[in-house]
């Protein structure tokens, strides 16, 4: 199947999600093997937590220590570096706004920015939770830092992220990563195998 003949794989994620980081390094290759493109969609997982009544994984009793172990183990399996940043968890508002500002100008660049931001956060363990840190990532990709900071603070971009988050939750998105293939939802990095099988088989 040629790219463009089928709907893109929809990849919802939060920049504060370690499992989103792991999935970000795999989703494009998975989709490409089946002639699909990927639509990257950052949203604010904290808003979804208010709907579900949950807390971030690392703050949950019993589950927290397990997931901290699993983050690193899963990264080693993929050959990816892993370090939790401080503070963690954090609000991914600034990088999410930056993504949508960039996407309006260059969709491919926005994806590169998202991946590089994830690498900065979880590959290097460095916080990217404010405009200055976001601009530092963007500059390395040739983006004008002053323009990006202005974009992050633009009312239209703030509204865009708010609308994307509301639309995601209304659709049923509650985790990161959360992936749709032709309307079929898959939650979690550990469902990427099913995502690929669904793409190959067309469902079951």
UniProtKB/TrEMBL annotation:
Pfam families, per database record: DSBA (PF01323)
Reaction(s) this enzyme catalyzes, per UniProt: 2-hydroxychromene-2-carboxylate = (3E)-4-(2-hydroxyphenyl)-2-oxobut-3-enoate
Catalytic residue list: 17
GO molecular function, one term: glutathione transferase activity
Residues covered by the DSBA-like thioredoxin domain: 9-198
GO biological process, one term: naphthalene catabolic process
Gene3D superfamilies: Glutaredoxin (3.40.30.10)
Family matches, as InterPro entries: DSBA-like_thioredoxin_dom, GST_Kappa/NadH, HCCAis_GSTk, NahD-like, Thioredoxin-like_sf
CDD domains: DsbA_HCCA_Iso
Family named by the database record: Belongs to the GST superfamily. NadH family.
Name of the protein in question: 2-hydroxychromene-2-carboxylate isomerase
